[in-house]
Amino acid sequence: MAARETIEAQKVARREEQRIDDMEGALNLILNNGFRAFHVETTADAATHEFMLGIAKNVPISDIFESARLGSRTADRRIILWKTTFETGEVHGSAHHEDHFRSLSRSSLPEHHEMFQEVIRKLSVEVFSSGLPD
């Protein structure tokens, strides 16, 4: 049982390491104006949700299987920045690699479910030149 727990702990550690690398890529995109808005929606609570997409270049890949599949230790990763501006003017933000963002919709608040579905639909069907929305 200890070996299984060790393997699981290593997987969790690799996912967290990847998340940190993705956040560094997101920070660089913010600093260099690398995000482009692709969906804006105001919810019933008068909060405005803005979803932006950026491509983080040469992000280190911490998962050895993913690295082997790609044939590289780095990859360009699509990062979604979710910025929410509340009626009070307070702003909250979060950034997620596309796969992680898609998984958020399964645990989203019921009142945000339709919004998530629309954002994911746009991520799936939009064609981005140079990886960024026009």
Tell me what you see in this structure:
Strand 1 and strand 2 form a beta hairpin. It is built from 4 helices and 4 strands. Strands 1-2-3-4 form a 4-stranded antiparallel sheet. The protein has one domain. The chain is an alpha+beta fold and 134 residues long.
Describe the main β-sheet briefly. Answer: 4 strands, antiparallel
Counted up, domains total 1
Return the average pLDDT rounded to an integer. Answer: 85
In one word, what is the shape?
Answer: globular
| Rg over C-alpha atoms, rounded to the nearest angstrom | 17 Å
Unreliable stretches (pLDDT < 50, length at least 5) are 129-134
Total beta-strand segments: 4
What attributes characterize this protein structure?
4 strands, four-stranded antiparallel sheet, alpha+beta, 4 helices, 134 residues, globular
Topology:
Layout: H1 2-31, E1 36-42, E2 48-60, H2 64-70, E3 74-85, E4 91-97, H3 98-104, H4 113-125
Antiparallel strand pairs: 1-2, 2-3, 3-4
